[in-house]
Write a structure and sequence with these properties.
2 strands, mainly alpha, 9 helices, two-stranded antiparallel sheet
């Protein structure tokens, strides 16, 4: 993408040159081949009108471009995970889990101290457990809603592990403002490497949703 506060484009004799503005930075070199490939890929989408008719998709696409335009890699990462959260529908836990939670709520409801603030908070927490976690739902969506040519891990366990690590990095950023060091990689290296993985997941998921209207 080209943004006014990053670059300026000057068309000249069928060539496109990209000049950095004094306060901007180079995002990506742009040439005719790359531009042509992007146009071809965009035209391959069979349901582009789906974006305009779907408020969640419109918001997700807008958030995706907002992430691309940010100069801060931490902000880019958090915004891309937000795209996944926007696209992911909520879901209930399996029936067995639901039944156990109902029994717990019934027990607390009959407890003589049920008006106690702590028990009230506990009932609320248990009630919230009826829904699957956002991470579980993202794992489900990322694995099953992928294009046929997806470059993501083929196995469910590996796919889930990938998503959970990405979401864990998001949690580090949101709660601590930085990425925790892991293995031999510095926080900066870990953020950069996982950003590319995250961007691929989000791009593929957006493409799948636009090509398979509900």
């Amino acid at each position: 993408g080209i943004f006014s506060y990053h670059t300026a484009i000057v068309p000249e004799h069928l060539r496109i040159w990209e000049y950095c503005t004094p306060m901007g930075q180079e995002i990506k070199l742009l040439d005719i081949a790359a531009l042509s490939g992007a146009v071809t890929q965009g035209q391959a989408c069979t349901h582009p009108e789906r974006v305009l008719g779907d408020e969640k998709l419109t918001l997700a696409v807008g958030m995706f471009w907002a992430a691309s335009s940010s100069r801060d890699p931490r902000v880019r990462f958090v915004l891309l995970v937000t795209v996944l959260e926007i696209l992911t529908p909520g879901s209930k836990r399996p029936k067995l889990s639901q039944d156990v939670l109902v029994e717990l709520l019934d027990y607390l409801e009959k407890h003589p101290d049920k008006s106690n603030d702590e028990l009230t908070k506990l009932r609320s927490c248990i009630g919230n457990l009826k829904n699957s976690s956002i991470t579980d739902n993202i794992c489900e969506l990322a694995f099953h809603c992928r294009p046929a040519d997806s470059k993501q891990p083929a196995g469910r366990k590996e796919s889930d592990r990938n998503i959970r690590e990405l979401y864990g990095i998001r949690s580090d950023l949101v709660h601590n403002g930085k990425v925790a060091k892991k293995g031999g990689n510095t926080p900066k290296e870990r953020l950069a490497a996982n950003y590319e993985r995250l961007r691929m997941v989000v791009s593929e998921l957006l493409r799948f949703q636009m090509e398979h209207p509900v």
